[in-house]
Each structure stands twice: as C-alpha cells, then as structure tokens.
Fold this protein.
Amino acid sequence: MEALSLLENADIDPATKQALLTSFQSLLAEAKRDKLKIQALTLELAHLKRIRFGKRSESLDPQQLDLFAESVDEDIGSIHAELDTAEVNDTTPKRQARQHAGRQALPDHLPRIEFRHEPESCQCGACGKGLVKIGEDISEQLDVTPAIFTVHRHIRPQYACRACETVTAAPIPPAVIDGGLATPGLLSWVVISKYADHLPLYRLEQMAEREGVPLARSTLADWVGRVGYALEPLHERLKERLLQGGVLHADETPVQQLDPGKGKTHKAYLWAFRSNTLDEGPPLIVFDYQTGRSGQHARDFLGTWRGHLCVDDYSGYKALFAANHDGVACVELGCFAHARRKFYELHAANQNPLAEEVLRRIAELYAIESHGKEMTSDARQALRLRESVPRLAELHRFLMDQRIKAAPGGAWAKALDYSLKRWDALARYAQTGNLPIDNNPVEQTIRPVAIGKKNWLFAGSERAGKRAAVIQSLIGTAKLNGVDPAAWMRDTLEKLPLWPNKRIDELLPIDGWKPAEA
C-alpha cells in the first residue's frame, strides 16, 4: 500500500487527489476480484486435467439406436414373464401357449451331452403292470462353456402300458424359461457378459456367429428380460437384508436414459446403498434406478429405516437428517475423502503449503484407521478416542484459524468452509468403533458401473434401468463376498424354478452361498 500512502501525502489539488484516490481504490478492488477469479479458474483447470470427461453430445448414431432396440426386446421378455406368472394364479380358462415360431435347428457340428430322464418306476402307475418302451421324446437346449458351445440333449424314454393303454415318461425338468432354448449356463453367460463384462448384446451375437451358432440379438434380449424378472425376488430380499443394518453408505451416479419420442437422452440416476464394512456380516450393495436425483428417491428407498447414513454433501440427503413427525431422524456421517479432495485439488493446482498441511493431518487420521482395521469394535473405539479425537480437535482449530485469515470467496476459503460447515458429521465417527471415516466403500462399488457406461452408453428405458439395478446389485454383492458371479448366476438359475421362498437367503451371493453338488 506504499503507492496509496504516497498519493494521500502528495501536495496536489484536493479535488484531483480525491479523484485519484477513488480511481486507485477501484483498481485495487478490481485486482482483488481478478485474483479470486484466477484462483477459482486455476482450481477448476486442475480438476479438469485430473478427471477425463466423456462426450456430452446427445446425438445418437445407428449403433446407439440398436442398443435401444435391445432394451425394448428385453422389456417385452420381462412383460411376457410377468404375464406367465399372472396366468398361473388366474382361475380363468388359459389361453393357448405361445408358439416359438422360427426356431432354427441347432448346428450338427456341436458336441452333444445326453441326459436321460427315466421314470421313477418301470411299472404303470395306474394298474401296476410293467411298462414297455415305445419311443423317446427328445428336446435340445444350447449351453456354453466360454468359447465352447454344446448342445444338451434331453432324452425322455416313453413307456406304454398295453393293459390300460397309457404312456409314461419322466417329467420335463423345470427351467427359468419354460421350453426355452437356453440352459442356465447360456443364460448366465449372456447376463454376466452384459452386466459384469459390459458387452452389448450385438457383440455376443457376433461371438456366437464366429462359432457357427445363430443367436439373434432379439432372442438374447428376450432372455435378459426374463432373467431380470426372475431375479427380482432376490433383489428385494437383498434390500431387506441391507436395511437391517444400522449404518449405511449412500451415493448416486448419473446414467443417460433414452427418450424415444425425441431421439435424445435425459439424465437418470443409479442410486447405490452399501452396508458398513466395519459391521459384522456379509457386505451388501443394492442399486436403485430412478429417473431423477430428487432426495425423495433416497427417502422412498430407506422408508422407515433409521441409523447412521454416510453421504457426501449433496443437498438431497438433508431432509433425511431433519427430525420427522415422530422426532426421529437418520444421523449424518460426513465423508473425509470428500473433504480431503477439496484440499488435494487446491494443492495440485498451485502447491498451496497450507493445503499440504491439512493433507498431512488428514493422512494421520487415515493411518490410525489403517492400524485399527482388524481390531474389534471396542478396541477400535478405544484407539480412536486415544489418538483420533485429539488430532481432530487440533485439525479443527487449525481450520478455524485459517478461515479467519482467508479472503472471502477464494478457493482456500471454500475448501475450509466445506469441512467446517460439516465438522460435526465429519468427526462423529471417532466417538465410536463401528462408524466409517468416509464414503469410499460405496464409491468403489459404483466404479465398475461407471466404467460400463462407456460401453453401453445409456439405458434404453426406465424398465431397462430398473432391470440393470436388480442384476448389478446381485453381481456387485457377489464380488464383495468373493463369489464368482458367473458360477453363482448359473447355479441360481438352475435352482430358482423349484426353490422354496422360505429358503431364499440361501440363494443370495453372500459368504454362505454354496453351489449345487455336481
């Protein structure tokens, strides 16, 4: 401010001096605004360099429209499955079964594995006399071992009773798709390829074609729709199990959904809710597809659930933490990873030494968490109270002191405000032994879905998005529990048609799951 002092002491006309002072102060204010703007732009540029954004264009090429057609066929398959289920419980006369017209014979060059289904008894169930074989009912299904297609031949010898003129044969084994061409193994391959390996169905069609096997994309889509419908009860049970926990993680990721009437896409969201990694029991992840980001979607999913919810600073969750009509609300847990990210980006942009100091202090908190990772909840609580709580108090004082000195509106002030405004939620974990320090567990679970979006680009419909949420929940839970999703899917699709609902937990892909004996 030496120039300002010289100007104030200058021996010049008072009116001229006042005009110069006013102009000089205006220039100082403008320079201050420019400095803050440069700080904000520098921080934003560093953030953009660190994160690579995909295309934002809503224009659709023909291949994208083909992907939408897959979703339509999947929806049709799912609707047919729902109609079939409704007809089972309907007492009105049944309509004739749909004819599977146009099915091509399975190629002769594929190896055959025969399964013989003999009646339980060789005596007639009506009169007790011996049965005589008069022929065989042969049906074929297509199965696959990765890159090897085989044909399962189901041979059902038919036996006749000459005395009472009846024919006896073993019943047809039940299947997720009655009378379908695909075995559980093939259905598993299609579903896992699409949702775990993120391969669009047209690529699976091409892979089968290289083996000389005709698998129309519409057929694959129909199978996916029917399997998604069949797995819905498992998804509902997974959600019930998840909401039994007292601590949850929540996050959401955008998904483009096609708007067929306009030929463009609009933004939908895949909400993710994950169990607490510090609690006992198997880890669970449940996805919920919604067409928007309103906080009401999270409230609808959680319903009457009350507990500690670890989230980022998205305003949609705030209503969950306000006391409801009965005076009970969810308890907010802040995410130290998000708070740290603000200082990391500031340090990456201009090597801010104060931001570096904050990062060092937060690193100490994470070192304590790493040390106590394998401890019991009580031992971890004692560790946190002894080592984390004092460091959190010191960090809070440091942030408060720096906020007093920080220029309002600057990037440094914004980074400080993010942590200080949510300090109670951020520091709450240290008073216990079972609350998480951050929301990283759910973000890591969402990451594979984000990678998949680069391949499948968008959801073709709301029904397709909800089907993806069902299947992704089961695949994600399998991965969290060290269960092979493909092996689980195949085994579950084999068991599901006859599995009692009271034992549905045994089908969930958690640590207690066991494959069927060969």
